[in-house]
Specification:
The protein has helices at residues 5-15, 31-49, 76-102, 107-110, 114-118, 140-154, 194-217, and strands spanning 62-63, 70-71, 119-125, 128-133, 171-178, 181-188. The protein is an alpha+beta fold and 219 residues long.
Length: 219
C-alpha cells in the first residue's frame, strides 16, 4: 500500500534523529553525553511550546456521542521536558558516583589506569585476561579502590579512555597477591567482548612498559 506523501515525510523526519553511537562493551552514556542530550530535549521542548494549538477544542479533549467525533492531545513538549530532566538526573548520578569512589584523590592519580601504572605482564584466559602487577601496586583494598575510582572517572566523559579495559560493561575484577607481586583477573560474561578485553589489556601493558622505560631513562 502506498503511503500518503505527508505520512512519508513525517516518518522520514522521525527517523532522522540519531542517538549517540554505542561503543563495544559500552557502560552507557557518559555524564557529558547525558548533559548534551538534556540540552537537546530542553531545546525541543521550548520549540514545541511555541507552537499554538489550532485544533478544535484547544488543549483539552472531548467525545461527541452524536457524531462519533473525538479528540485527544499528546503533550510532546512535556515529554521532551521529562526526557531532559531524566538525562540531567543521570548525569548527576554519575558525578555522585565519582565523588563517592574517588573522594579527594588527586586527578593526576585518577587519570592513569592502575594497570598502566603498575602492569608488568599478562596472559589471556578463557573469559578475559590475567594481568600481573608489581608489588608497588599497594595493598589489595587500595588497589581495588583505585580501579573503582578510575572506572567512575571515565564515566564523566573523559576522552581518550575508550580503549581502557577497565571501561567495559559487565567487567569482573578479582585480585590476588603475595609479597612478590599482585595479579588482577579481568573477565567478562559476554563471549563477544573477550577479544576486545584482551586487546585493550595488551595495549595497556604496552603503555605500562613505556612508562617503566621512561622512568628508567631519567637521569
Amino acid at each position: 500500500m502506498r503511503l500518503p506523501a505527508l505520512t512519508a515525510i513525517v516518518l522520514a523526519a522521525c527517523g532522522s534523529t540519531q542517538a549517540p553511537t554505542a561503543r563495544p562493551g559500552s557502560r552507557g552514556l557518559h555524564a557529558d553525553e547525558h548533559l548534551d542530550e538534556a540540552h537537546r530535549h530542553a531545546q525541543r521542548a521550548e520549540e514545541l511550546s511555541r507552537w499554538p494549538d489550532t485544533r478544535p477544542g484547544g488543549p483539552g479533549s472531548f467525545d461527541d456521542s452524536r457524531t462519533g467525533l473525538w479528540y485527544r492531545r499528546w503533550d510532546t513538549a512535556g515529554e521532551e521536558a521529562r526526557m531532559a530532566a531524566s538525562h540531567h538526573s543521570s548525569a548527576a548520578a554519575l558525578h555522585a558516583a565519582y565523588e563517592e569512589a574517588c573522594g579527594t584523590t588527586p586527578l593526576g592519580e585518577i587519570a592513569v589506569s592502575p594497570l598502566q601504572r603498575h602492569g608488568v605482564g599478562g596472559t589471556n584466559t578463557a573469559d578475559g585476561v590475567l594481568v600481573f602487577l608489581g608489588p608497588d601496586a599497594g595493598p589489595p583494598d587500595e588497589l581495588l579502590k583505585a580501579i573503582r575510582c578510575h572506572r567512575a572517572w571515565m564515566m564523566l566523559g573523559e576522552r581518550g579512555m575508550e580503549e581502557c579495559p577497565l571501561d567495559l560493561a559487565g567487567l569482573r575484577v578479582i585480585a590476588h597477591g603475595d609479597p612478590s607481586g599482585i595479579s588482577i583477573e579481568l573477565a567478562v560474561s559476554d563471549p563477544k567482548l573477550v577479544p576486545e578485553l584482551q586487546r585493550r589489556a595488551a595495549a595497556d601493558l604496552e603503555q605500562a612498559a613505556a612508562r617503566r622505560g621512561a622512568r628508567t631513562a631519567r637521569p
